[in-house]
Amino acid sequence: MKLYDYFRSSAAYRVRIALNLKGIAVSRAHVHLVRGMQHDADYRARNPHGLVPALELDDGRVITQSLAIIEYLDETHPAPPLLPATPEDRARVRGIALAIAADIHPIDNLRVLQHLEATFAADAAARATWYAHWIALGFDALERDLAGDARTGRFCHGDAPTLADCFVVPQVANAHRARLDMARWPTLARIDAACQTVPAFTDAAPARQPDAE
Amino acid sequence: MKLYDYFRSSAAYRVRIALNLKGIAVSRAHVHLVRGMQHDADYRARNPHGLVPALELDDGRVITQSLAIIEYLDETHPAPPLLPATPEDRARVRGIALAIAADIHPIDNLRVLQHLEATFAADAAARATWYAHWIALGFDALERDLAGDARTGRFCHGDAPTLADCFVVPQVANAHRARLDMARWPTLARIDAACQTVPAFTDAAPARQPDAE
Asked: What beta strand segments (E) does chain B contain?
């Protein structure tokens, strides 16, 4: 399998964590988003959406969307499981992941920030305020979710990493980059700190990738 | 089970379709988003994210996020299945759903449009252009995905509805509301037309809901 990756992509970072947790080795191709490599015809032929990550299977078929890729990895490499056993708990873990994957990250994505600049002449300060707004709004709700549920343990769900933690850690990294003070979200900060003791998470960090700048 | 619903919410519409395809009856509560009912303390206690849909289970626990809810319904009520049998095909169907759930809809959501108005003084015309931009960008890629894959049939994946169709139909409805010409996306238009012959889809339409205005 080959992962189309970019060190700073928060969505690719999720998949790197899942691959590490499962101990799955893949080859890598680096798609430099800021240089616009996602628009190259060769990449668009593989992934018309022009986003990363994408996972190319050995038969040439391509899976897009970080959550779909991680569910695929969990189905094809079941140990250790990234989803809990009951449907109710699985729904909770997917809900946490999607609160980030659907409600925070897409609104702050590079192409949206570029479109804000092009359309509304949003300068760097306005873009930074926009970026922080959606993280804070989403984290306020996630913090209430996590702090108010007895199923939260050392990690988002119990005492072993799940798919939800694969989404939380890259989003917390984005919050740090935006200089948000995580003290406002103590449960998220505590879970992130627990993840930072696990090599599967730290080895997936942007600064540790071969294409890091 | 109780569904927290809003007739015009595209995310709630997805869940209504899935419930109908499964033949599952639930009670309903209507959360009027334009009147701001999602901010009420009573609703926020159930769903801190303040979005719809949310599915309240009989034990009081709440599942958020349309994709997590539909996966839960598929796991607990397996017939008819909304995901195909192989991991590769399941990943494809989830990828189509997420191309809408993560890459189109969140950027066009009501709260984002309201924030554009408040932050950048985006008037109705600017908001409409923004709204259409993200649908067109996403649909261009989805059209290539669907048209170029032999697994596409009468519906997104083969000849029976899947989870992917639950996401496509509400997004096509949004495109119609934005007066986009679906002729640009013939495969998406054809799949939507096939779905419109199935009562599970038509009965879930916003205009058919008890809270429709």
From this structure: 2-5, 27-30, 54-56, 62-64
Q: Which of A14, A47, A69, A88 to mutate to test the interface with B (most CBs of B within 10 A)?
A: A88
Whether ipTM > 0.95 holds is yes
Residues of chain B with C-beta less than 8 angstroms from the C-beta of A57 = 88
Confidence of residue B179 (pLDDT cuts 50, 70, 90): very high
Cis preceding linkage at B80, omega within 30:
yes
Task: Report if pTM > 0.95.
Answer: yes
User: What CATH number should be reported for the domain whose range is A87-201?
Assistant: 1.20.1050.10
Percentage of chain A surpassing pLDDT 70? 100
- Helices marked H in A23-61 — which ranges? 41-46
Q: Which residues of B touch A144 (CB under 8 A)?
A: 48
Distance CA A106, CA A87 (A): 27
Q: What is the pLDDT of residue B205?
A: 98
The answer to whether the beta carbons of residues A3 and A19 sit under 8 Å apart is yes
Is pLDDT of A146 > 90? yes
- Please answer whether residues A156 and A96 qualify as being in contact, where contact means their C-beta atoms are separated by less than 8 angstroms: yes
Other CB atoms within 10 Å distance of the CB of residue B133: 14
Flag if B98 and A65 touch (Cβ within 8 Å): yes
- Delimit the domains of chain A by residue range: 2-80, 87-201
CA A48 vs CA A159, A186, B71, B156: distances in Å: 38, 39, 26, 16
**Quick one: CATH architecture of B2-80?**
3-Layer(aba) Sandwich (3.40)
Set of chain B residues whose Cβ sits within 8 Å of the Cβ of A58: none
Q: Do residues B8 and B33 lie in contact, with contact meaning Cβ atoms separated by under 8 Å?
A: yes
pLDDT at B26 over 90: yes
**β-pair type (B54-56, A27-30):** unpaired
Best mutation target, B88, B133, B139, to test chain A (most A CBs within 10 A): B88
